[in-house]
Amino acid sequence: MQKIKLIWDFNGLDSLKTAQHFNIHIEEFLVKEDLPFHTIGVDSINDYHNIAFLIINKEHVDKIKHALKPQRAFLINK
Asked: For 29-43, what is each residue's pLDDT tens digit?
């Protein structure tokens, strides 16, 4: 099964807090829709750029893409 990493970018001084808060909404959506996932988290690129991310099976990407509108997506080769 192919895995996709969906990414939401946040910029600015409060971007880490915003990314952490957005992860709460991602988790709520996954529970509500009963969607399995592999990993969810936050990565800090620098003090002004942080990301929220979700790794999920490719078959579930469209449902998340339309509801939560990630900015980027990458195929995971693991």
From this structure: 999 999 999 999 999
Burial 17-53 (b: 16+ CB within 10 A, else e): ebbeebbeebeeebeeeeeebeeeebeeeeeeebbbb
Q: Domains of the chain, with CATH numbers?
A: 3-76 (3.30.70)
The structure tokens listed for 75 are 């195929």
Which residues, other chains included, contact 48 with Cβ-Cβ below 8 Å and sequence gap of 6+? 11, 12, 13, 15
CB-count exposure of residue 7 (10 Å: 0-12, 13-18, 19+): middle
